[in-house]
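Query structure, 276 tokens:
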């Protein structure tokens, strides 16, 4: 019992230490954003805030640019999540439930696509979207991000679908369900943790994406937050209090998104670990 208690104590202290190291950059970002500009480079640094100065946030809300950019990022990320879940779930169901001869080849091709660096294909994609009049469009950007994330999502969802017993499909077929009804009424409800895990991973990837957003969006009113934050460095200079105040606002949507769905994320990751 003593050894067990010591082991639990060591794991607890280690977990707290790792959490503190992980959370400290976020704390320091918020701390700097709430300091007067004259206190930003004070030495020794003030670990604990001696007061709160919200002038940086007031200046941000007066201009309103960062709020528009965050809204654009939310639109693109949410649209990509929806398109990705539809395409990946249908593709994974087909690979899992239909025994085609080229299934293994198709899965291998999915992995090949996932390993291709985005920088290598950005030029042909840009030419294609330019001819289709999809440049400078948030929906076009969502389509691009869907194409970049759907391969991984399909591969992961196939693993979850494979572990749903096929006897359930057979029983539903006897009751008169079509393949699509089996997919919609049985497979999807049983895979909710996996679907939410994929949705969260996709949302974070797209919300933080920079290269495609910079290349395909030229209208400043349609900028995503990643592009706007980078552009502000040249516009306002290295004004750390304003920059970190904008970065703090930029972090709010994904943090809220995570806390809303955290129980499903943990369940999905846990089930995935057991299944693989």
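Result returned for the query:
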């Amino acid at each position: 019992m003593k050894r067990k208690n010591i082991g639990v104590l060591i794991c607890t202290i280690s977990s707290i230490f790792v959490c503190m190291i992980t959370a400290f950059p976020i704390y320091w970002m918020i701390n700097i954003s709430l300091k007067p500009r004259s206190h930003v480079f004070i030495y020794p640094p003030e670990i604990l805030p001696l007061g709160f100065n919200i002038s940086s946030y007031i200046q941000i809300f007066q201009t309103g640019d960062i709020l528009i950019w965050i809204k654009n990022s939310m639109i693109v990320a949410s649209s990509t999540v929806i398109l990705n879940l539809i395409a990946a779930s249908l593709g994974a169901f087909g690979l899992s439930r239909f025994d085609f001869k080229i299934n293994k080849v198709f899965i291998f091709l999915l992995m090949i696509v996932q390993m291709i660096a985005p920088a290598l294909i950005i030029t042909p994609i840009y030419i294609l979207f330019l001819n289709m009049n999809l440049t400078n469009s948030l929906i076009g950007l969502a389509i691009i991000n869907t194409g970049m994330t759907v391969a991984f999502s399909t591969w992961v969802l196939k693993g979850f679908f494979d572990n749903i017993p096929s006897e359930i499909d057979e029983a539903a077929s006897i009751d008169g369900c079509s393949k699509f009804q089996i997919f919609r009424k049985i497979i999807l409800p049983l895979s909710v943790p996996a679907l939410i895990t994929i949705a969260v991973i996709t949302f974070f990837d797209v919300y933080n994406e920079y290269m495609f957003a910079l290349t395909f969006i030229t209208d400043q009113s349609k900028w995503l937050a990643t592009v706007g934050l980078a552009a502000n460095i040249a516009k306002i200079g290295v004004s750390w209090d304003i920059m970190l105040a904008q970065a703090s606002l930029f972090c709010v949507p994904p943090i809220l998104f995570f806390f809303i769905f955290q129980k499903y994320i943990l369940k999905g990751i846990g089930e995935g670990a057991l299944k693989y």
